[in-house]
Write a structure and sequence with these properties.
11 strands, single chain, 127 residues, globular
Amino acid sequence: QVQLVESGGGLVQAGGSLRLSCAASGSTFSRYTMGWFRQAPGKEREFVAGISRSGGSTSYADSVKGRFTISRDNAKNAVYLQMNSLKPEETAVYYCAADSTFYLSLVKVTTAEYSYWGQGTQVTVSS
């Protein structure tokens, strides 16, 4: 079982950048495919980005392609989300998620596919 703790959220102006981090503990990090999701008030939780166990495969929501970058450091048991050119409508709680898989290149993109979740970090983008 893995425990996830997000950090790096905060208040930023539209067009600004933030880098979110997710620290994992309690299990072998490299066994897990990882993802970032977000949930705005009154809306469903939505996929933002995902990365495979090896880090060699990634997937992004269409709305963030070209602006967000997901990465991981298996030696540090961490996954990151670099967010650039942020928009006010991206204000949300951002969650880190993990799920174990045998496949090195698998990326999961739905909430139902992930077994473990962090508590989330608030990102607020002001206009």
